[in-house]
Amino acid sequence: MITASRGVFLMVVGTLALASSAAMISAIDGEPLSVAAWRCLLAVPMLLPLAIWELCRRTGQPRPSRRTLIGALIAGVALGVDYSFYNTSINMIGPGIATVLINVQIVILPLIAWALEGVRPMRQLALIIPLMLAGVALTAGALDLGGLQLTGVLAGLAAGTGYALYLAIIRRTAPRGPARSRPAPFTILSLVCLSAGITTALTATGLGRLEVPAGLNGWGAMLALAFVGQVLTYLCFNVAMTAISETASSTLMLLSAVFAVALAAVLFADIPSAWQLLGCAMIIAGAWWTAMAARKRAGGNAPPTLPADNSQQSQPHLPR
């Protein structure tokens, strides 16, 4: 069992890796569907040893149910949608703002629960949603009509919606019962990546947009993205969450947006305006407010917020 301080350190490393993957996507500057496809497909053989190790350690314990496995494959389709729009948003408005916009999924999740199950969302959303929408408007450049980046922002919002659907499916197909009966997270993540990769690859092929990485540099960049964005990120998250609380983990995950904005400024000189920074701050504040309110509503014992954990709650991507 690792200590809480090491858990916090690993969580920060994971969020930095998540933000770095956005910068890597921006540097690759490839066709969004193709980048999403190769990112997921190349991650599968990297995750496979971890999945086999997890399953071998579960000797005498129940295997993942068919419902859970099918749920992971369906959720992978939603994640493929998320990655495709996310990559599009990065190419249009930069990795920093695109990563901030993903946080809108934290208010979409309770709305999905309301629509599907009749679970009324918390009252605070009546204030949080306008706050975040105002933040989105400022981030899009609403005060500068000449530089309005509506298409890129809409792609970012679509990515956040796709990620919310991914989380909703994962949680509704997760097994009930004690934690020891839950499937290994890397087994589920491997299936999700396989499904997302196949879905985006077939879509890109059907649209005539599938691009194969060129040469060693192209393949190297894709392999690095798959490792940093899928393996390193969620390895850190999974280990860290054995030592720190769900509230701490969800709050630390918001650092990915801060890191992404900072990296975009340092690496690409992509410096947001003061109004855009204010919009980013409003979105992050809304996500944090929602996470804290959800945990208070759940009596301070809400499940973790990470997709790889395969738990049920009212989250934040989490993600990415």
Task: Note the topology.
Blueprint: H1 4-28, H2 32-56, H3 66-93, H4 95-101, H5 105-117, H6 125-139, H7 150-172, H8 185-206, H9 215-240, H10 246-253, H11 255-268, H12 274-297
Helix pairs in contact: 1-4, 1-9, 1-10, 1-11, 2-3, 2-8, 2-9, 3-4, 3-7, 3-8, 4-11, 5-7, 6-12
Fill in the keyword field for this structure.
320 residues; mainly alpha; 12 helices; 0% strand; disordered C terminus
Question: Any overview of this molecule?
Answer:
With about 325 residues, the protein is mostly helical. It has one domain. Helices cover about 70% and strands about 0% of the residues. It has twelve helices and no strands. The chain has helices at about 5-30, 30-55, 65-95, 95-100, 105-115, 125-140, 150-170, 185-205, 215-240, 245-255, 255-270, 275-295. The longest helix has 28 residues, at about 65-95. The chain is globular, with a radius of gyration of 19 Å. Mean pLDDT is about 80; it is low at about 300-320.
**What percent of the residues sit in helical stretches (DSSP H or I)?**
over 70%
Strand content: under 5%
Shape: globular
Termini separation: 25 Å
Q: Rg to the nearest angstrom? A: 19 Å
